[in-house]
Specification:
Elements (H helix, E strand, L loop, with lengths): L4 E7 L7 E7 H10 L7 E5 L5 E3 L3 H5 L8 H5 L10 E5 L5 E9 L4 E8 H52 L14 H53 L5 H15 L3 E8 L2 E9 L2 E2 L2 H5 L4 E2 L5 H8 L9
Antiparallel strand pairs: 1-2, 3-4, 3-7, 5-6, 6-7, 8-9, 9-10, 9-11
Helix pairs in contact: 4-5, 5-6
């Protein structure tokens, strides 16, 4: 019942030819199959034509002349038409589910089986799937974080642009929009800044024009008011010219924003004082009647203005 060798007979030529018989030491085959490693728990073994175990890493099974012909994968390979390199699900001698594959040794009519527990195969597959899933999950998380950072990086300058545009719309043209992204958003912020600068210059020019126009209108209104007051004085004293001259002197001082105004009449080559307004009040008539007349020539500012019939401006009299 125990064996450590096997007799092998090979016929040469025809069916009636001589037969060569060899006594094979199975321990050498055991050395070969025991060195074959398939995973952690897989193994390789050799079965003869009758299904008896020829070589196995567990030599005790060989010595007990174990018959494996009842195993499904051994029965499957008895079919001459079965593919020699196919793998199939089966059960081993202990009833454990295994993945088995076979290769024949045709000269000896032996078959070499390789089997590995399905749990070990699926464990490696599951570990690979788990690693792949974790990598995909990590990639998704990193992508989401990158997208969030990118979105925040884009939203911040856009929000700055929006707030700046709102302030410009409210009339705050002195503020600048600061965006340092080095892309189209920064270029847009620069265009906003140039636009606000141009608007500020336009508003400043418009304000100057409004002030000038307002001043012109104010001067025109003052002139019209002065003329109306003078006309009122003329209508109230049609026979006495002195009140009219007094009114003209007073209105002239107000219109020119001057502390002093005097009306002088041309009499020949002289200018004779006729009315005078000084520091908010009319001067007594007796005073300007005693004032010395001024010659109509270039010896005085008053005479020069009358002689040249134009305004004479002296920066510091």
């Amino acid at each position: 019942t125990r064996r450590s060798s096997d007799l092998i007979g090979i016929r040469s030529g025809s069916d009636n030819g001589p037969v060569t018989i060899a006594d094979v030491n199975l321990k050498f085959i055991w050395d070969v199959v025991s060195r074959i490693k398939i995973g952690d728990k897989g193994k390789a073994y050799v079965v003869d034509r009758s299904g008896y175990l020829v070589a196995d890493p567990d030599i005790g099974l060989v010595l007990r002349k174990t018959n494996l012909s009842n195993l499904a994968h051994v029965q499957e390979t008895n079919d001459a038409h079965a593919p020699i390199d196919s793998a199939m699900l089966s059960r081993d001698l202990g009833g454990q589910s295994v993945l088995a594959s076979m290769a024949p040794i045709e000269s000896l009519d032996w078959r070499v089986f390789v089997e590995q527990p399905v749990a070990e195969v699926t464990a490696k597959l599951n570990a690979s799937i788990l690693r792949t899933g974790l990598l995909l999950l990590a990639g998704l998380v990193i992508s989401a974080l990158g997208a969030l950072a990118l979105a925040r990086g884009m939203a911040r300058p856009i929000r700055t642009l929006s707030e700046g545009a709102q302030r410009i719309g409210q009339g705050n043209l002195d503020q600048r929009i600061e965006v340092r992204t080095g892309d189209e958003l920064e270029a847009l912020a620069d265009r906003f800044n140039r636009m606000s600068s141009q608007l500020r210059e336009s508003y400043a020019g418009l304000e100057r024009k409004v002030e000038e126009r307002t001043r012109e209108l104010s001067d025109s209104l003052e002139q019209q008011t002065a003329i109306s007051e003078i006309l009122r004085v003329i209508s109230s004293s049609p026979t006495d010219v002195q009140p009219v001259l007094d009114a003209v002197a007073e209105r002239a001082a107000h219109l020119c924003n001057a502390p002093f105004a005097r009306i002088m009449l041309v009499e020949g080559t002289l200018l004779v004082p006729a009315a005078e307004y000084w520091q908010g009040q009319l001067t007594e008539r007796a005073h300007w009647e005693r004032t010395t007349p001024v010659a109509v020539d270039r010896t005085s500012v008053t005479g020069r203005a009358a002689a040249e019939r134009q305004t004479i401006h002296i920066a510091d009299i």
